Each structure stands twice: as structure tokens, then as C-alpha cells.
Amino acid sequence: MPKAPVRSKPVAVAEVILPRVSPLADVAVQGRFGADRGAPGVTFSVRHPLSIATVIARAGKGKATAQALAEYEPRWAGPDQYFVVAQGRGEGALYRELKSALDGIASVSDQSHGRVIIRIEGPKVRNVLAKGTPVDLHADEFPAGKSALTQMAHVGVHMTRVGEDAFELSVFRGFSESFWEWITEQAEEFGYQVR
Amino acid sequence: MLIPCPHCGTRPVEEFTFLGDASVKRPASNDPSSMEQWYDYVYLRNNPKGRFDEFVHHSGGCRAWLVISRDTETHEVFGCVTVRDYGKTKGGKA
Prior knowledge:
Helix content of chain A: 10-25%
Order of helices and strands of chain B: EEEHEEEH
Structural class of chain A: alpha+beta
Strand content of chain B: 35-45%
Number of strands of chain A: 11
Distance between the termini of chain A: 70 Å
Strand content of chain A: 25-35%
CATH class of chain B: Alpha Beta
Number of domains of chain B: 1
Oligomer: heterodimer
Largest interface: A-B, 10 and 13 residues
Helix content of chain B: 10-25%
CATH class of the largest domain in chain A: Alpha Beta
């Protein structure tokens, strides 16, 4: 007589919360690097952990989406497309909030784990970025709050000016280490600090 | 060569991927008698000297499909519009 299949008891699955680890945790070592005379030309920091979501307006809903997003300081990311960034939010909280706020007018997807945002600031920030991008970074052309999609060292970069001498660069997580190595190398001649 | 992207502003050609002639028209019929037209549409391309409209994808920027009008001899760029706007103008004009 064939044996009855062994049925295991249902096991209660505990909710597993994985701690978020920055992909640059081991790479972005704090300290002072490169030219060591005078004040550092630029300062790098990794904005982590961060909630990031992309918003893409449905056909004909571009204006409605822009209006609904006004309070979130959206970052332009293509025609009728935006990045929304927030700090100190719970896992998926920003995504769920945007999804209900934009129901029917835009598609939202959570990018918090997919992208890394590197902040670069200091008196030499334009000199460093200009080595990688053809975008005109003069404040008349590229004021604070403006964003651009471009490429640096063959890596797709979403760039936002967040202050007079401060930019935030958003790259795919998988490219972040290689991008970090490239951009810090560009900053060596000016001296840089990692915070 | 600098390309005036309608979304991103002037960007270098390295950010773009070229697809080719924007003037080819897909045959309306699937009838076997239209095979000549299909052959033409799929395989045959002109190589004109002078003004030429072609599809480009702004792969290193806004990722939109565009049509650029340029001179194949001098690389002078006459204009660049989105494919949607290109389709709206009769016969297409970048």
C-alpha cells in the first residue's frame, strides 16, 4: 500500500523585515581625499535611505498630474514624467500615498531600492560635473530645482540642482559603485570630502 | 553634431540612437499583391545627399522618439520634433 504523502503542518510565517543597505555602504568611505591643500572642492554624500517613486502621467493627464504633485517638489524626468523623493518615510509609504493621490491620472512605481542618489556640493561642483555631462550648468540655464536626464561615463544619470552649489545625481543601484568610482576620481584634483 | 531635443534642449549626438529614414510609409494593405510595396518598405532605403528626415531615440536623455531633419552632406540640423508632432504635420516635416 503506497504511503500517504507526508503533510507538514502549516508553519506560521514571521514577517521578515530586511534592513536596507546602501549599495555604496562599503565604498563611500568617509574622509578627505585627493588634493589636500585648502578647503575641499566638493563634498559627496549618499542620500540613504530614501523613498523614491517615478510618476508617469497617463495620456492627456500631464497638467492634472503636475497639479496633483505640486506639494511634493517633483523632479522632471522626461515629458510628463517625474521623480518624487522623500526622506524619513516608511517602506513603501510614499509609493502608496502617491498611488492613491494620483489614481486614474498617472502610473506610479516605487524606485526606492532601484536607485541611489548621490549628493555633490561645493565650490567646484560645476567643474566636476562638466567633465561628464554636456548640459549647461550655469545658474541662468540650470537654476535650482531644475532637473535633466543625461549620461556621465556611459551611465544614465538623473541630475537635479538642489542649491546654488549643490546637485543630486540619481543612478541605477547596479551602476552606483562604478559611477561613484568615476565621479570621485574626477574630483581628486580639487580635493573632496565624503560625508 | 548638436541636436535640439524638444524636451532636453541642445545635446550632443552621442546621446542619441539612430533608427533611419523617417519618410518610409508602411503599406496599408496586407494583400499578397502588395508584396512589392512591402519589399520596398522593409528593405529598400534611399541614401540622399542633402536634407534628410530620420528617426532618433534620445536614449541618453528623455528616452523619447524624435525626428531630426539634417543635411547629410554638411550635418546642418534644420529641426527636431517629437514623432507625435511629426506625424501630425501632413507628410511629415521636422
